[in-house]
Amino acid sequence: MQIKTYNNQTITIDLEYSGGNLVALPALVDPHVHFRIPGDQEKEDWHTAEQAAIAGGYTTVFDMPNNIPSTTNRETLEHKKSVIQDLFDDSQVHINYKLWLGATTENLKDIEDLKNEILGIKLFMGSSTGSLLVDKKANQAKIFELAGKLGLVVGVHAEDEKEMQKQKKKIGKTTDVTDHSKIRTPEVAKRAVTQAIELATKYNTKLYILHVSTKDELILIDEAKRKGVQVYAEVTPHHLFLNENDYASLGTKGQMNPPLRTLEHQDALWNGILDDIVDTIGTDHAPHTLEQKSQSYGHAPSGVPGIETCLPLLLDAHNKGRINLEKIVKLTRTNIENIFNIPSNNDWTIVDLDLIREVKNENLKTKCGWSPFDGKKLKGWPVATILNGTIYKC
């Protein structure tokens, strides 16, 4: 059958589908996933993660390094590749992927050695899930300087550790999940982004700021862009479609780093999309089991799954007039290809813009088996994804 594309061309594919308002979008690229292998396979593995990705319209992912062990040198990188390949050998699905390398205070030589084998360098300026943390400015500067010389992207988890610990001490011991947003305040993010931009400017480094969540960050990023700094902003679906009010229903299932923000910051992210300050959407797909997430605050891990629901959320927003299809394609495909200099492919996702479906935990492909959007009815869903010429029904 012939299907129109988002830009009013047509493609022909062998798909049986009756009715609906079908549109073909270039298959999505997710620059920010945690597929948990090696080390946390009870939460996710590449079999389940691939299925979840394809169900969400994705055929390419960039996987993060905070595994067990962390991916920080040749040995751990090769081990991770071999584990993934072993899973590929048992699967008919071979999703496209690239790997981030984690920055430490001691692996500058490893970064240089692996410069042609990695997507970029992941730098945790503040503590999050896993053991990777480089919070001293002098050490951060060495990483930025090397990346600038090598032409590597530095992807930063931009939370200032010192300010975060200051807020944590002020609040004290707590089991109230709403305090998560009071510990990891907008000021925590602002300070880190200010420092990252300063270093990127000094060393002419390509800077990719992960999961931007505040108005303050966007102002700084916009100013830097106007000065010619190579800085790019990523936002997540959970920060676009959830806010602090959702703690009441989600509890620790709404706990992630950086945390949920107020409506003011949420609206600022949408304005940043419209004003072309935001460059990409990364799902930060970070599954944990329901048992783990059901623990009290202080014990529950941060992170939520998102790769299956991101595109339906965006299509629903499109149907409500909030974002057009061209912008969705830029944020989830073409801008990412340009920033990371990866070649394009001929993968597609076929969406039915009129299909109304409810997000249900029991229907999800992700191994963790839950979503913060469970129970939400959305209009617009992927119905098929084409990966390397093979059609997979969603």
TrEMBL record:
SUPFAM superfamilies: Composite domain of metallo-dependent hydrolases (SSF51338), Metallo-dependent hydrolases (SSF51556). Its cofactor is Zn(2+). The keyword Metal-binding applies. Coiled coil: none annotated. One of its GO terms (molecular function) is allantoinase activity. GO terms for biological process: purine nucleobase catabolic process. Pfam families: Amidohydro_1. Transmembrane segments: none annotated. Residues 24-342 form the Amidohydrolase-related domain. The keyword Hydrolase applies. InterPro entries: Amidohydro-rel, DHOase/Allantoinase_Hydrolase, Dihydroorotase_CS, Metal-dep_hydrolase_composite, Metal_Hydrolase. Keywords: Hydrolase, Metal-binding. It comes from the Bacteria. GO terms for cellular component: cytoplasm. Belongs to the metallo-dependent hydrolases superfamily. DHOase family. Class I DHOase subfamily. Catalyzes the reversible cyclization of carbamoyl aspartate to dihydroorotate. This is Dihydroorotase.
